[in-house]
Amino acid sequence: MTDNNRLSVPYNEPVAVECQDVRLTVKKKMILDGISFQIPTGSITGLLGPNGAGKSSLLRILAGLTLPDSGSAQIFGKPSGVDRLGVLSMLPDRANLPGWLTVEQWLGFAQGIYPDWDADKAEQLLLQLSVSTEVLISAMSRGEEARLQLLTCLSRKAPLIMLDEPFTGVDLISRERIASAVVSELADGARTFLIATHDIREMELLFDRLILMGEGKIQGIEDVDTLRRSGKSVESRYREVFA
Ligand SMILES: Nc1ncnc2c1ncn2[C@@H]1O[C@H](COP(=O)(O)OP(=O)(O)OP(=O)(O)O)[C@@H](O)[C@H]1O
């Protein structure tokens, strides 16, 4: 792959996320096959691809939850791992919040475990995402819990936010609310977002960069403005690559 295809970040701009030839096999099956890319600081990047492409596996490696067989993953210039957990906030694909707590109890707990917790932001997101505080987490619907998980993720001040399927089980209006919560987070341009999603239509206007993954490989890295100038949308490019 040429450097141009990788859409490298110009040398004088800060890099938030970098992978160099990351490989992962699980039970002799190749899950990630030579993944290399860079994401500039302040970007909102869509990680797109069909089921089983390896998106969640890649995010887990970036979060330091899985070790790759070879290659390197760096967050703000330092190797992924427990040391980097303080600078990233991740919404995993199969998260479980403690069902025996109410939302209010959970938020008090979260404030204790995350040193970068922003209580004002949590208050603001409770309203923005219509999450009520008295309810037991185990009594929430899938979509309600998804909103609470997003709230938890965005209430930290971490400079890198990674969301794995933030819309699973979430209704249309809540999807729009989630998208606008992400947009308001972007207002200062300081945070970097990496979002794995199948909901391209809701997120299409948010992304400034795309990483298209299929069968454990990078199938394309796109600058969304350049894509639009060539008359394509995120959706049409996705279809071109994967249909
Ligand atoms: N622990 C595991 N054991 C065996 N196979 C695994 C394991 N974890 C992931 N895989 C396989 O790795 C491949 C990539 O899975 P992954 O969840 O990363 O894909 P994905 O792109 O996030 O998919 P989706 O869009 O469906 O969430 C799949 O074929 C999956 O079955």
Q: Could you characterize what this model shows?
A:
It is a single chain. The protein is α/β, with parallel strands linked by helices and 243 residues long. The protein has a single domain (15-242), classed as Rossmann fold (3-Layer(aba) Sandwich), CATH 3.40.50. 31% of the residues lie in helices and 26% in strands. It contains 8 helices and 10 strands. The chain has a 6-stranded mixed beta sheet, sandwiched between helices. A 4-stranded antiparallel beta sheet has the order 2-1-4-5, with helices on one face. A hairpin with a 2-residue loop joins β9 (209-214) and β10. α3 (119-128) packs antiparallel against α4 (142-154) and α4 (142-154) runs parallel beside α5. It is globular, with a radius of gyration of 18 Å. Bound molecules: adenosine-5'-triphosphate (ATP). Adenosine-5'-triphosphate binds at residues 26-27, 31, 49, 51-57, 93. InterPro entries: AAA+_ATPase, ABC_transporter-like_ATP-bd, P-loop_NTPase. This is ABC transporter. Keywords: ATP-binding, Nucleotide-binding. Residues 17-240 form the ABC transporter domain.
Break the fold down into its secondary structure elements and pairings.
Layout: E1 15-26, E2 29-40, E3 44-48, H1 55-62, E4 70-75, E5 78-79, E6 88-91, H2 103-113, H3 119-128, H4 142-154, E7 160-164, H5 172-186, E8 192-196, H6 200-203, E9 209-214, E10 217-223, H7 224-229, H8 234-242
Parallel strand pairs: 3-8, 3-9, 6-7, 7-8
Antiparallel strand pairs: 1-2, 1-4, 4-5, 9-10
Helix pairs in contact: 3-4, 4-5
So what's the CATH class? Alpha Beta
Give the helix level as a range of percent: 25-40%
Q: Strand order, main sheet: write it out.
A: 6-7-8-3-9-10
CATH T-level topology: Rossmann fold
Known CATH architecture: 3-Layer(aba) Sandwich
Bound molecules: adenosine-5'-triphosphate
| N/C terminus separation | 22 Å
The number of helical runs is 8
Mean pLDDT score, rounded?
A: 89
Instruction: Please name the fourth-level CATH homologous superfamily.
Output: P-loop containing nucleotide triphosphate hydrolases
Globally, the shape reads: globular
Tell me the major beta sheet.
6 strands, mixed
DSSP strand content: 25-35%
